[in-house]
Design a protein that fits this description.
Layout: E1 20-26, E2 32-38, H1 43-53, E3 61-65, E4 68-69, E5 85-92
Parallel strand pairs: 1-5
Antiparallel strand pairs: 1-2, 3-4, 3-5
């Protein structure tokens, strides 16, 4: 039985993305680490895993997607990430600096 308004049995094709996507996290010194993540998993899980792997403090590391900070609780779907390979930049917070004379 065809859907209403679908006499030929040809429906509108829904675009589906693979369940998993490949995400690259690049450190300040240029090291690249690849992760495979489910599209409906919050990014925070990936970022915390990255920090554990390199013994970094999650609270003291900033992450950027296309040069912008993003909400870590969002999933790749919610962030509109469609490409198979996405690059996130990881930057360690720096304290101090600006030493006066």
């Amino acid at each position: 039985m065809a859907a209403p308004g679908d006499e030929n049995g040809e429906g509108i094709e829904e675009v589906k993305f693979p369940a998993f996507m490949k995400i690259k996290v690049k450190s300040q010194d240029g090291k690249e680490t690849f992760f495979k993540i489910n599209r409906d998993t919050p990014m925070k899980k990936l970022l915390q895993s990255y920090c554990r792997k390199f013994r970094l403090s999650y609270q003291a590391t900033q992450f950027y997607l296309e040069g912008q900070r993003f909400i870590h609780a969002k999933t790749p779907i919610e962030l509109g990430l469609e490409e198979n390979e996405v690059e996130i930049e990881a930057m360690a917070d720096q304290l101090g600096g600006g030493g006066g004379e």
